[in-house]
Each structure stands twice: as C-alpha cells, then as structure tokens.
Amino acid sequence: MTVRRAAELLSAASSGLALTGAGISAESGIPTFRGEGGVWTKYDPVKVASIDAFLQDPAAYWRVSKERGGIALAARPNPGHYALAALEAAGRLAAIVTQNTDGLHQDSGGRRVIEVHGSGRTVECLDCGAREPRSDVQARLDVEMPPRCTTCGSTVMKPTVVLFGEPMPVAAMQEAFALAREADVMLVVGTSLVVHPAADIPLAAVRSGARLIVVNAEPTPFDSLAEVVIHGLSGEVLPEIVRLLGGR
Ligand code: APR
Ligand code: ZN
Predict the structure, then answer these.
(1) pLDDT digits (tens, 9 = 90+) for 157-180
(2) Could you tell me which residues come within 8 angstroms of residue 173 by beta carbon, excluding any fewer than 6 positions away?
(3) Cβ(38) – ligand 1 distance below 6 Å
(4) d(CA 201, CA 98)
(5) How far is the CA of 61 from the centre of ligand 1 (A)?
(6) C-alpha to C-alpha distance for 165 and 171, rounded to whole angstroms
(7) Which of 16, 25, 62, 177 fits as disulfide partner to 146, beta carbons 3.0 to 4.6 Å?
(8) What is the distance between the alpha carbons of residues 229 and 217, in angstroms, rounded to a whole number?
(9) CB of 118 closer than 6 A to ligand 1?
(10) Is 131 helix (H, G, I), strand (E, B) or coil?
(11) pTM (predicted TM-score)
C-alpha cells in the first residue's frame, strides 16, 4: 500500500522537505500550467510570461494575468495544503518549498514556506520600486490596463513573480538547496518537474541520500528515482498520509 509506505517514511523523517507545484492548488480552482486544460495549452509561455514580452507589452501580460490573478486571489487552501502544514507542524517537514505564487501554503498555516518563483500577492513598480498588494491592483484592472503606479505613474508594474528569463530569487534558492542536501525525506507534490532549476531541488535531495516520495496526478520524469510514487489527487492523498500518521 503506497500511501502507507509514504506515511512510514514520513513518520521517521526528522528533516523532511516538500516541493510543491501548481497541482496542489488545482483543487482550489487554480488552473495548472501543463497537462489537461493547462494555461500553457492556451497561451505560449514565452509570449505571455517572459520578462522580454512583459517589458515590450505589459498590457498583453496583464490581460492574461488579470484572469489567473483573480482566480488565485479568490482561491482558498484545500485539504492538501492543510495536510502539508500539519506535517510541518508535527516536525515531519522542515519547510515547504513551492513553485506556486498563490500564497495558499501560508494561508493554510505553513510556517517556513520558500517561494522559489516569488509571490503573486505583491506588485512592484519596475521604475520606482513602489510595492502594492495585488488585491489593490486587481481592483483597478477593469479601468486601468496596464495598471499604473500610484507613486510615479509608470505602467511598468509587475507582480513579484519570476517570469521566464528572470533570475531566481537567490536567497530562496540557496535555502531550498541547503535544506534539500540535509533532507532525509523529499516529498514532491503536484508538479510536472519540467522547469529547472526548481526541479533540481529534489535531485539534490536524492543525491544526498533522501528518500523520494512523489504524489502527482500523472507520471513525472522523477518517478523512477522515487521510493514511493502515488498517482492521485493531493487533496485526497496527503490527508490520508496525515491520518495514517495519527497527526504525529
Ligand atoms: N493533485 C496532484 N497533482 C495534480 C493535481 C492534483 N489535484 N492536479 C494536477 N496535478 C499535476 C499534473 O498532473 C501536473 O503534472 O500537477 C502537475 C502540474 O504541473 P504544471 O502545470 O507543469 O505546474 P508546475 O510543475 O508547478 O510548473 C512549474 O512552470 O510555468 C511555470 O512558473 C510556472 O511554477 C510554474 C512552473
Ligand atoms: Zn512607480
């Protein structure tokens, strides 16, 4: 029983680490990027979510981001998020590394959440550096496209997320890789593991001897490295693992 095996591995974990992707937020209503109905099946990521495309035409970026951003702002954590927070609170996970920018790990009680692709909850003016909550900016997108900086009037405002072609946040990546090298169990949830360097984090953990658990709706390139592979919905599988652990 693979869920039982996953619970056994996690029950013995003293420096576990989780890496999550869009799949853990799918049951909160936020579309994933790849696979069925994914965002990148409708838009070309390079045209829409690269820093070059953004700088050329911020309005084109914001027209797509307005839709996804509105969904993410309205989204609430699902049982998968709460289960990871429970594993962290029980000391089974040292931290939750996420590629997601929706803030749902924090909303569900995650304490040490490392956002390697930044946060969609804040918007920054690239001209003057002023920052605003995304919810404030979202509220004026119907009448202001692209949004204008309330401090300097610039229209080059960008959510504090990592676009294709942008460098990764150095501190977050250093922290994630340091934890990966220390990890005894690496729990990967809801990610296609095709985007690097984020996908190198579980590789660093496995190379340092961590036991790998993959919970994903469909096969990933790392399944063959995993001690446990569970193809299922994180909102169902993770609470079952926590139940088997008896909350320990
Ligand atoms: N439970 C578990 N897994 C799920 C669920 C679910 N309920 N729903 C979907 N999945 C799986 C899909 O099968 C897919 O393999 O989650 C994975 C999501 O993969 P992607 O859409 O590629 O998302 P992610 O891996 O997070 O993408 C990485 O790519 O576009 C960039 O910056 C973006 O952070 C993102 C990065
Ligand atoms: Zn400004």
Answers:
(1) 999 999 999 999 999 999 999 999
(2) 116, 197
(3) yes
(4) 11
(5) 21
(6) 18
(7) 62
(8) 10
(9) no
(10) strand
(11) 0.97
